[in-house]
């Protein structure tokens, strides 16, 4: 019983360390984050934070052979500190959802 608990704790520690390593090296080597803060200057020379995140938007919905197929496209969405969308850029990533009508 003690050996099983010890094995489970070791696995949890190892998976946590692996997750941390992947996130850390992904950010360091690729320079990618899901949320980034970008600083811009307005006409009054004030700094505003712009938040970046990914969002899927429904672009097409069709029915084929009794199935509804929804097509979603991923967008890069930039918002200011007040939550207003500054710009929205479509990416080349698509996701498909199929369900019985």
From TrEMBL:
TM annotation in the entry: 7-26
Keywords on record: Membrane, Transmembrane, Transmembrane helix
This protein's name: DUF3139 domain-containing protein
Organism: Ectobacillus antri
């Amino acid at each position: 019983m003690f050996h099983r608990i010890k094995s489970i704790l070791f696995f949890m520690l190892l998976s946590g360390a692996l997750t941390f390593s992947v996130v850390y090296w992904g950010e360091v080597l690729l320079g990618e984050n899901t949320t980034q803060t970008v600083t811009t200057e307005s006409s009054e020379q004030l700094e505003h934070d712009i938040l970046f995140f990914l969002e899927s938007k429904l672009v097409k919905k069709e029915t084929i052979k009794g199935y509804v197929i929804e097509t979603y496209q991923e967008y890069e969405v930039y918002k200011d500190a007040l939550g207003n969308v500054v710009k929205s850029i479509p990416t080349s990533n698509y996701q498909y959802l199929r369900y019985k009508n």
